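Give me structure tokens for this 229-residue protein.
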Amino acid sequence: MTVSPPLRLRLDAAALVSNWRWLAARSGAAACGAAIKADGYGLGARPVLERLAAAGCRDFFVTTWAEAGALGALPQGVGLSVLHGVRAEDMVTAIASLARPTLNTVEQVKRWRDAGDAPCDVMVDTGMNRLGLATQHVVGGLLDGLNIDTLMSHLVSADEDVPRNEQQRTAFAALARLIRFAPVLPAKAAKAFRCCSLRGTSSSAETRWLISVSMFRPSSNPPTTCCVA
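Here you go.
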């Protein structure tokens, strides 16, 4: 006898797309991306990817290389970032993948640099004190010459419009100016220095700075908190 589960989660595709469009409209010139880690937060990573890509989303985030592989082929023009970066045991998979690692540590940066000139994303710490490269590493030139697609940081108080957000924005901009980015072809120039705040939008134009967002936080109606990490 087959017993059906007592609870089900149904994906309201129209609501999902509507949420993304709502956020994208408030992101200004910044790209509005989507975290689809943990199987799209239970909604199904592949269905979410397909629906949001069709709606115009071009930047997606997962946690691990296993999650990246489970997505299958990416739609045309879509980029994928793996937030946990790249371990030694991930290198064969990462080099063969179209996804980019988000480099979070000195060891990851050195490992990726030694493997060649493939694109990567980089996380810098501007106050979260949890994940990302410290200021001294950036100042010391660790990132110089890397083929960086997206430079990102993480807001501490993403749910609130507080002075700390502007402090982090200022710190982030200062770090970005220190990096000697790798030369890029004209076709890549527009994408060579895209920056995002992992988590958080704000009503303030100053703190809407660099946004990559998703729409899976159920407490927001309409969504005012945007969470990637």
